[in-house]
């Protein structure tokens, strides 16, 4: 059983972050924000992929002015991502549900004070987004681009916001490598109770970003650290949500959808297991109920695993068993097993707990 660190609960739009709220999955559009139609289209794609919160880049005033129109056309909570020009945050705050700024490139503290004032007036939270690659000069000179430097920056800026009477804060501490990222979150976690946004930044293509995020975010989640997260991928938007949801499920943090247990390929397999698992994944992906599904290709693994699954196939030579809660419900030829298996899964998904 994973025990999460107790954190203050804040709201980004209608999504609760921290406290006992589920860990939310975020993503970010890649269109120019001023292109309202393209940005709305991408946000809608993310919505249907299962995204909880969406962030958009705001590099200039045209982008900031577009936020009002975008907000009117979407249902997801909207976060404005601000770098360098604090005045863009003041415009964005009129329309969005949260402001994310990087203290390392906003500059003078008076500018942060103006951002905080705008957020206070509209009752929207701030995400302090510390990145190892863009620390404030004083922290980089003292610590270098280290986890300690990231934590020092975060603590300084948290204190500054608190001194302004502002505590609707979430925090991210991102580096492009797993080790620094994990170390920074671990160092800061015992020092405050603000919710953490997890992520390994600039993680690369789908393959590398999946591995880095699974290691980094999975490690932190297993330690009870994290309240919201993004998997940063150089690729299609939906992949970020798909990988993020999988990390939550496979780490045991979220209980949603089927958990498919299947054999590694080996010389004992007596069926076309690869094709069978592929078909099953496609046919059960719509199911939200948490179920353990076992698809085993030989007698060595089959019965033991099948016995503990909600629904299972135990393949033999040319035929096999379908089992429900460890009980055999059918003995069929190989070509009929998958259809019967899916039928039993659908039946169980409809049952009340």
Automatic annotation (TrEMBL):
Biological process according to GO: isopentenyl diphosphate biosynthetic process, methylerythritol 4-phosphate pathway; terpenoid biosynthetic process
Pathway this chain belongs to: Isoprenoid biosynthesis; isopentenyl diphosphate biosynthesis via DXP pathway; isopentenyl diphosphate from 1-deoxy-D-xylulose 5-phosphate: step 5/6
Domain IspG TIM-barrel: 7-244
Domain (IspG C-terminal) ranges: 259-347
Lineage top rank: taxon: Bacteria
Chemical reaction(s) catalysed: (2E)-4-hydroxy-3-methylbut-2-enyl diphosphate + oxidized [flavodoxin] + H2O + 2 H(+) = 2-C-methyl-D-erythritol 2,4-cyclic diphosphate + reduced [flavodoxin]
Keyword line: 4Fe-4S, Iron, Iron-sulfur, Isoprene biosynthesis, Metal-binding, Oxidoreductase
TM helices/strands, residue ranges: none
Function: Converts 2C-methyl-D-erythritol 2,4-cyclodiphosphate (ME-2,4cPP) into 1-hydroxy-2-methyl-2-(E)-butenyl 4-diphosphate.
Cited PANTHER family: 4-HYDROXY-3-METHYLBUT-2-EN-1-YL DIPHOSPHATE SYNTHASE, 4-HYDROXY-3-METHYLBUT-2-EN-1-YL DIPHOSPHATE SYNTHASE (FERREDOXIN), CHLOROPLASTIC
Protein name, UniProt field: 4-hydroxy-3-methylbut-2-en-1-yl diphosphate synthase (flavodoxin)
